[in-house]
Each structure stands twice: as C-alpha cells, then as structure tokens.
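Sharing a chain and its predicted structure for anyone who wants a worked example. Both blocks are below, sequence first, tokens second.
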Amino acid sequence: MHQVSYEELDPDELSYEELLALGEVVGTESRGLSSDTIAALPSISYKAQDDQDGSTDQCVICRLEYDDGETLTMLSCKHSYHPECINNWLQINKV
C-alpha cells in the first residue's frame, strides 16, 4: 500500500471525517498568547491631557476615545489599548 505524504494531501478533496482525522494526527497550532500571559500584561489608568492641537487618544482597535481614569492594557512597545480589545486580539492572532 502506498503511504501518502503530507505534501500530496489536498485538503479540498478530503471529507469532513478525514479532515478531523488529519487534525488529530497533525495536531493544532496555538496561534495567540495564553490567558496567563495576557493576564500578566501591565495595566495603566488613562489620564486625559489637554492637547493644544485638539487631538484625543483612542483605541486603534475599536476606534473609541479613552475616558479619563479608564483602565488600559499596555504592551511592551508602550502602546495602550482597551483590555477587552487587545486581549481578544492577542488570543486570536499569532504574535
């Protein structure tokens, strides 16, 4: 019997059951950060500042402005986000 290598497999030609079996053999890849790693990220309290140019700070994920005193999650790059926005993103996306 001919052994099929992974390079020869065409997932578009496999049945649902065959895809499940393949997933068990190949395993899964964790794409995002663990919940523990995300929980360990530092939090800051946002402090509104009077900018002369009239600009306001906002979360670049949801595009909503930060409220004075709101708790934000800060990454090592020093960018801050709403916790619910960045936590979800970090769980889903490969970082």
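Comments welcome. Helices lie at 16-26, 35-39, 83-92.
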